[in-house]
Amino acid sequence: MWRADAIASAVNGTLFRVEKGSFSAISTDSRTIKAGEFFVPLKGPNFDGHLFVEAAYAASGGGSLCDRTRREVFERVPGTVILVDDTNQALLDLAAFKRREVGGTFVAITGSNGKTTTKELLVHLVGDLFPLVFNEKNYNNQVGVAKTILAIEESPKYSVFELGTNHKGEIETLSRMVRPRMSLITNINPSHLEGLSDLSGVRQEKLSLFETTETGGRIFINADDPSLASYRPRGDLTAATFGMREEADFMLRVTKERGIEGFDVTLMLSGTEVRTTVRLLGQHNLSNVLAASVLAHSMGVPSSRLAEAMAEFRPYKGRFEPIESRKGFVVIDDAYNANPASMQWAIDTLLALPCPGKRIAVLGEMRELGEKKVGYHRELGRVLKESALSLILLLGEDTKITFDEIGNGRANHFEDKAHLVDFLSGKIGKGDIVLVKGSRALGMDEIVEALT
Known about the structure:
This protein has 17 helices and 24 strands. It is of the alpha/beta class. α13 packs parallel to α14 and α16 runs parallel beside α17. The N and C termini lie far apart (48 Å). 36% of the residues lie in helices and 23% in strands. A hairpin with a 5-residue loop joins β19 and β20. A 9-stranded mixed sheet has the order 11-12-10-13-14-15-16-17-18, sandwiched between helices. Strands 19-20-24-21-22-23 form a 6-stranded mixed sheet, sandwiched between helices. Strands 2-9-8-5-4 form a 5-stranded mixed sheet, sandwiched between helices. It folds into 3 domains: 85 residues, MurE/MurF, N-terminal domain (Udp-n-acetylmuramoylalanyl-d-glutamate--2,6- Diaminopimelate Ligase, Chain: A, domain 1), CATH 3.40.1390; 211 residues, Mur-like, catalytic domain (UDP-N-acetylmuramoyl-L-alanine:D-glutamate ligase), CATH 3.40.1190; 131 residues, Protein-Tyrosine Phosphatase, Chain A, CATH 3.90.190.20.
């Protein structure tokens, strides 16, 4: 239950009008708001929630926040109205207020690649062993994290949050709102360079998670990542390392490669060996498996449960998911997103998979690389030129640079997905493996759907 005076205090707001003194929950969507809930009108480049304050009140009979500058809104709208300097910031303030009232252990995960897979795998491993809250899908920005915190009921034993960023300072903002007791960074790689400038900027941004972890907390350092291995934490934190190549506190060893079916692995967790099967593809996903296992083990998941649950986990849509087509070829759906590191990992994995037919890569451009996009797309072309791929299909304006760099007859560039699919449909057959990967904005998932 939210009292009007408590809301006003939490957001440093002014009670302009009070018709209802308490509310059942906080909502940011006038389309789904329920009776008795309080509305927060968010703003963005292409929307303004202030336009829907009246509609929200009609559905809730409650009240809303309102920017102080929007006199034309707050003077006419009915219900309880609290004025603030900025409704977007007020949502974060409300979440921070709620967080102070919630008990249990908060766990935070960030990184350039693998954070969603690590979080989803961790949630799967923990399962119904403990009361658990987590931000669903990839709701890892300020609004998604805030809304997840605001929806927490009582005090679950664990709350797991994936934190994302595309500009400087966002991880710190999210971490100070979440106040994690356990923190893990999957890796540091070139990503979101438009907002973070360079690899050093990415490292500084991600490491802010460790810097803002709660006093007495525990952080987990990827010993295989050169940008993380040298990190030395504050004296009030406990640190543990994990890795597959470098010696670490927690380790993973591959005991058998199963091709398209994944791996058999042994996890070494605090002196305990856990043998299990992993249904994910690629060495990069094994690092995510280890990261999730380390967190699950530290949260108290028994080894037997961890082994059983790991073998049951399947990749999520768009994240290196193998799909068998009706025509006998396999499509690797990695269409969710792309940056230089994940593109390299995907190509390496495709080349390593046993394949009786052709290995084909369908690759879209990589977005949010800022002024470095030319260099990274040219480097991708060099990698593809030297690879043993049978066929390379490229989509997007920036991949013209990649196409020019390859220049050996195996590559084709397309302006649109329809022509690409038509061309590819005449080239693939039984036994082939087709990787589909590119930045989310290109809608590469439509190619996957067309092929399968």
